[in-house]
Fold this sequence. Notes:
alpha+beta; 17 strands; globular
Amino acid sequence: MRPELAQQVTPAMQQASDWYARWLSGEMDEKAKRAWQTWLEADEEHSRAWQQIERVQLYFGKVPGSLALATLQAPPSAERRRLLKQLILLLMVSGSGYYAYREQPWRGMLADISTEVGERRQLTLEDGTLVHLNTHSAINVVYSNTDRIVELVRGEILVETALENLRIYRPFSVVTKQGMATALGTRFSVREWQQQQRDYTKVSVFDGMVDVRALGRKQSPVRVNARESVVFSANQVYAKTKLKATEMAWVNGLIVVYAMRLQDFAAELSRYQSGVLRCDLAVADLQISGSFPLNDIPAILQTLEQTLPVKVERFTRFWTTLSPA
C-alpha cells in the first residue's frame, strides 16, 4: 500500500478488514460471529470502520456477475489472505472504489489461475472446457447455475468450449475490463493489451461464432464468425478483420510471423521474457518472417543477428536492445 494511504489506516480499519476476510473465507462459526458482534459494539470507531466495509461491498457489487465474490472467497493461502486484507484496506481509504479494484496489480496475484512470464498452461474446467493460458496471464473462473464465466484479469487465453450437458443451458462468456465475449459453441482466443495508455481486448474466432459487447456499448452485440478477429475498447467495437491462422501458434510453443516489422516482433518476444527488450528505431522497419520456439528466446535473438543487419546488445540481465550491426 502506498505510504500516504497507509497513514490513513486506523487500528479499527485493520480489525474490520480482518473480520471481513474471515467472513468471506467461510471460517466464521457461531463463536466467531459472537466475537465479531462484541467487537462491533465495543466502540463507535469499530462501527464506522464496518460501515466502510459495507461500502466496499457495494464496489464489488458493480463487478459483472459474481466475479468479485469468486475472487474474494475461499482464499487458498495465507499469502492470498494477506493480499485480500490489503485490497480491502486500499478500497476503504483510497475512495477510488471500483476503479482501484480493477486496476491494482494484485488482482493478478489474487486470481484463481495464473502463469508467470514465459510460462504457458492448459487446464480443463468442470464442464470439460479447455482453457490455454499464454505467458503472464491470469483468470478467475465463476460457474453458477445460470452462467459459465471466465474473467481474463490479464494476458491471453484460448478457449475450446465444451458442450453444455445441464438441462438448462448456461452461456459461456469471457469477461475483460473492456466488455464481454460470449461463445456460441466454439474455439476462440481473447487477449488484453495496452497501447498508448488505452486498454483493448482482441477476440479471434477459430471455429463457430462469438458475440462481442463493449462495456459501454448499449447496441446489440457484434457477432464475430470463424476466421475473423475484432478489437474493442470499453466504448467501441472496431471493424472486424480477417483472422491470421498463426495467432494460436503460441499454444504449441511457437511464434509464427510473416513480414512483421522488427519492432513489432520485439514487442511480441518481450511478452515471453522478463526485463526490457527494445528495438532501435534505425532497424525498427526491418521485416522478419519465420517460425520460432518460444522456449528459447536467446536462440531467436541469435537468429536475428544471423539473418538481419542487427546486433543484440545486453546492457544488463534485464535490458536487451536490437541495434544496427
